[in-house]
Specification:
about 150 residues, mainly alpha, 7 helices
């Protein structure tokens, strides 16, 4: 985790940057590992730093943005736990961040549930096999406030 924190400040690091910092940290007794463990760490760093998820495209007729103005007032009941579970399962940090953004975009496009018309919008999420459709749906549900608390 120290390597990821140090390397992601200015964007995605190069192969040389990863190897250099990881090699340097390896000389510190706290981070001393075998060659096999070192290769595993490098592989995991590559996965964590280079795997990305595209934002996607949406088509809509009219839209009144609302979520950013209300986001500070919404306490997502399950999002923190879902995000933690995704990371435990090995999801790359950039993918979890992209999923968060995409889901916010989807929720915003769904319309304000407290608006005059209620929540009349309908939509369709399409994508390739294993492209994240279910994760988007789960994330949308996870970001809703606790049951019984209005938006």
């Amino acid at each position: 985790m120290s390597v990821i924190t140090a390397l992601t400040v200015d964007g995605v690091p190069s192969e040389a940057d990863i190897l250099s910092l990881a090699g340097h940290l390896r000389t510190i007794p706290l981070y001393s590992v075998s060659d096999e463990e070192f290769q595993d760490v490098i592989r995991r760093l590559h996965e964590a730093l280079t795997i990305e998820m595209g934002i996607g495209t949406c088509v809509f007729d009219t839209h009144a943005p609302w979520l950013q103005a209300r986001k500070a007032d919404i306490e997502p009941f399950y999002w923190g736990r879902y995000q933690t579970e995704l990371r435990k399962q090995g999801w790359a940090p950039k993918v979890v961040t992209a999923l968060d953004k995409v889901t916010d975009d989807i929720l915003d496009l769904m319309g304000n549930p407290d608006g005059e018309d209620g929540w009349p919008r309908r939509g369709l999420v399409m994508g390739d096999v294993q492209s994240g459709k279910t994760s988007n749906y789960t994330d949308s549900s996870a970001k809703r406030p606790m049951p019984g608390i209005s938006w």
